[in-house]
TrEMBL record:
This is NmrA-like domain-containing protein. PANTHER family: NMRA-LIKE DOMAIN-CONTAINING PROTEIN, QUINONE OXIDOREDUCTASE 2. Residues 4-237 form the NmrA-like domain. InterPro entries: NAD(P)-bd_dom_sf (IPR036291), NmrA-like (IPR008030), NmrA-type_oxidoreductase (IPR052718).
Length: 297
């Protein structure tokens, strides 16, 4: 069990917030800290429980250095794409080292080493961050994540039961997982011994391709779902992208390409071993969570 204080970055977001919620089930609030660029609104529920909260973001080195004082472990949630991730992550690693942090746990994206697949504005910064951590002298744990089940509808839309699955198909498969399961794995690494200087690939236990989604979704929902292999050009014109930032269609297509190329195909069992149960699978998740209750973006 962890003895020193643990700080969770990005605790006002989805994965960071769930991780902190689960940590509170295992540790006293006095042993936990969190940062957010808007702690008054984003971290109030944690502060009310006794968690130490700070206003800081990855661009503010001095604020990070202040927040990291007296911290033993940092749960470092990766920054969003298109936000100068390399500079932000460098600030976190360097401030943690200067403050005397002993162990940083980092959420990277799963990838196939040597496959030549580079995720737009993700792979380069992930690789940089991993190398910076390994060279820092601190203990590190790399948590390599696949796509999230909660956001998988970004690629197939919210109305696939009626409109079908209309995506460029490929031979590659992928095994997405829930943020809840990833957060549970984070907590295991943060609170138990034996995870220093290790890299985990946190896949689900069931991999499938875009060509197989319609059948799986139809079985889960008890209805027939159509499926069509469309061109990348057609996908970029999908109405779900209308009114969105200019780079978003290309960014989503980059993820589809990576999934089709098998970037997330490897099933390791790491996630199941860390959380001591089988991860939630796609067919079980969509049975009660698709269509999503919120909009596409």
């Amino acid at each position: 069990m962890a003895a020193g204080k643990i700080l969770v970055t990005g605790a006002g977001g989805h994965l960071g917030g769930i991780t902190l919620d689960l940590l509170l089930e295992k540790l006293p609030a006095s042993q936990l800290a969190a940062i957010s660029r808007d702690p008054v609104n984003k971290l109030k529920r944690f502060a009310d429980k006794g968690v130490t909260t700070y206003k800081a973001d990855y661009n503010d080195y001095d604020a990070l250095l202040f927040a990291f004082q007296g911290i033993e472990k940092v749960m470092m949630i990766g920054a969003h794409a298109f936000t100068d991730r390399i500079r932000q992550h460098y600030n976190v690693v360097t401030a943690a080292r200067q403050a005397g942090v002993k162990h940083v746990v980092y959420t990277s994206m799963q990838r196939q080493e040597g496959a030549g697949i580079a995720m737009w504005d993700v792979t380069e910064s992930d690789t940089f961050t991993e190398q910076a951590l390994k060279a820092s002298g601190m203990d590190y744990t790399i948590m390599m994540q696949p796509p999230f089940l909660e956001t998988f509808f970004f690629y197939i839309g919210t109305n696939a039961l009626k409109e079908g699955i209309n995506v460029p198909f490929g031979k590659g498969k992928f095994a997405p997982v829930t943020r809840d399961d990833l957060a549970a794995a984070n907590v295991t690494v943060l609170t138990e011994e034996g995870h220093a200087n290790k890299t985990y690939k946190l896949s689900g236990n069931e991999a499938f391709s875009f060509a197989e989604i319609a059948e799986i979704l139809g079985q889960a929902k008890g209805q027939k779902v159509s499926s069509k292999d469309i061109s990348e050009e057609e996908y970029l014109k999908w109405k779900g992208f209308e009114g969105q930032p200019e780079q978003l269609p290309q960014f989503r297509l980059a993820w589809v390409r990576a999934m089709n190329a098998g970037n997330f195909e490897e099933i390791t069992g790491d996630l199941e071993r860390l959380i001591s149960r089988k991860p939630t699978e796609f067919r079980d998740y969509v049975r009660s969570n698709y269509p999503p209750t919120k909009g596409l973006f």
